[in-house]
Design brief:
Layout (H helix, E strand, L loop, with lengths): L10 H8 L13 H14 L8 H5 L4 E5 L12 E6 L4 E6 H14 L18 H19 L2 H4 L2 H8 L5 H8 L6 H4 L6 H4 L4 H52 L6 H4 L4 H83 L4 H41 L3 H32 L28
Antiparallel strand pairs: 1-2, 2-3
Helix pairs in contact: 4-8, 5-13, 11-13, 11-14, 13-14, 13-15
């Protein structure tokens, strides 16, 4: 009532006037920012806990990538995609190279986070199947980025999803030239050593082993799902062929004479029945094709999304080991060499005084660099810790996959069974009862023992 501008000083009297009527409900408005702030507060209180559940990640954004039918370019044709964001309520056009520039900047800005891979670029001979597969892969890439807690509030992501100008590939590089990495700007960098538990290396190794096993199993399940889609698509193709051949039999053969049929007019009745059945088999083919699409969306795409996430975790681990750790080891080796040279110069006497002072200055610089590298190493380990928790936050996706498997199979088989039930009466009446031969003995198979040898 206060939101409606009513004076609530005499609240009891106002409530009496409503009697048995339903009281007005307060309008809370959009709570998205409040939820984000709540998660941020939780994260600040305990920076070693991710603080996100699966549905909270999904609510961060939903990205769609649709193919623009026409190709542009005078000589070299290229494909454009319409990228739409639920969060920013935006629609922009992007080319594949725009995605490449965006991913490169993400890796510069977040070297210690899970940056998803992009699909490969095919220079020539990109057929429809390749283009559609790449479109799905780009959609998964953007959703993984937009639903990452560290990326979701990044201006780089917002720019990619909302900038509507031309030459995106060049503009985004200019706009974010010299962008510092996360270690430089994160308030957690200075306390990174305190955020890394003593057993982090052991836990990290165990998690890598677990995720390797998880990846292999999910990849096998995804292979099964691919074959399910292939079977549904194959059934659709077979039903289409079946219906086409029934249509051929119903329309193409010439009328038969009494010389061939005698007094048996079974074929004419079959032709009339095949006309209607050819349409029914076309409907069956369409339903099987839709079943394949549902299985692809609910199973294959969801599993591939999870595999893309696991792959980005593997890439992160490789960057951690080949980047931060290897740089740290090289710096320590370089420090040892300089100290050895300093000792040698000190032993040689006064003539080496200038060299000793120069080496001391360089050693101080190197020690500062090593300290910075050690902080980076701890910060990288902290990020790996959080990214591992992000993997587990997305585990609920596997529940969605199982629910999708159940719903697609139950619904699909029920609908197909109903369609076959609808076809059954038409098959039973292919030949009118008055035309059928009277049955004097139990029905036997055409390939029974009494059949002529030429038909066995």
């Amino acid at each position: 009532m206060a939101q409606q501008g009513k004076n609530i000083e005499d609240g009891d009297k106002i409530l009496e006037n409503f009697g048995d009527q339903e009281l007005p409900r307060p309008a809370l408005g959009d709570l998205t920012d409040l939820k984000t702030l709540s998660i941020k507060v939780r994260r600040e209180r305990n920076p070693c806990v991710l603080g996100y559940r699966f549905m909270e990640l999904i609510e961060l954004d939903a990205i769609e990538v649709d193919l623009i039918p026409e190709k542009k370019g005078l000589i070299l044709k290229h494909v454009e995609y319409e990228v739409s964001s639920r969060r920013y309520k935006s629609k922009v056009l992007r080319r594949y190279n725009d995605f490449v520039a965006f991913q490169e900047l993400l890796l510069i800005r977040f070297p210690y986070r899970m940056v998803p891979r992009l699909p490969p670029k095919k220079m020539i001979g990109a057929d429809r199947e390749f283009i559609e597969g790449r479109r799905k892969s780009l959609r998964r890439f953007l959703n993984l980025v937009a639903r990452h807690p560290s990326f979701s509030e990044e201006s780089l992501l917002k720019f990619f999803l909302t900038f509507g100008g031309a030459d995106m590939q060049h503009v985004i590089k200019v706009q974010f030239r010299g962008i510092p990495d996360e270690f430089v700007t994160s308030p957690l960098a200075v306390q990174a050593k305190d955020l890394v538990p003593m057993d982090t290396q052991v836990q990290f190794s165990n998690s890598r082993d677990f995720i390797r096993i998880l990846f292999n199993s999910i990849a096998h399940i995804k292979g099964v799902s691919d074959r399910m889609v292939a079977r549904s698509t194959g059934l659709a193709a077979d039903m289409l062929i079946f219906g086409k051949e029934l249509s051929v039999l119903a329309n193409d053969p010439p009328a038969l004479s009494s010389w061939a049929c005698g007094t048996i007019d079974t074929w004419s009745h079959l032709q009339n029945g095949f006309k209607g059945l050819s349409v029914e088999f076309g409907v069956l083919a369409d339903k099987s094709q839709k079943q394949g699409h549902m299985e692809d969306d609910c199973l294959v795409e969801q599993l591939q999304y999870f595999l893309d996430l696991l792959t980005s975790y593997k890439d992160l681990c490789d960057r951690h080991e080949k980047g931060v750790l290897s740089d740290h080891q090289r710096a320590l080796q370089k420090m040892g060499q300089m100290k050895k040279r300093k000792m040698t110069a000190t032993i040689q006497g006064k003539e080496q005084t200038a060299l000793v002072e120069q080496l001391e200055s360089r050693i101080i610089e190197q020690e500062s660099e090593i300290n910075n590298m050690e902080n980076r190493n701890y910060f990288s380990l902290h990020c790996v810790h959080m990214e591992t928790q992000l993997i587990h936050a997305n585990m609920e996706l596997l529940v969605k996959v199982m629910e999708g498997l159940l719903s697609t199979q139950v619904r699909g088989h029920q609908e197909l069974a109903q369609m076959w039930e609808n076809i059954a009466p038409k098959i039973k009446t292919l030949i009118p009862p008055s035309v059928k031969s009277p049955s004097t003995s139990p029905a036997t198979s055409p390939m029974s023992e009494t059949a002529p040898s030429s038909f066995r």
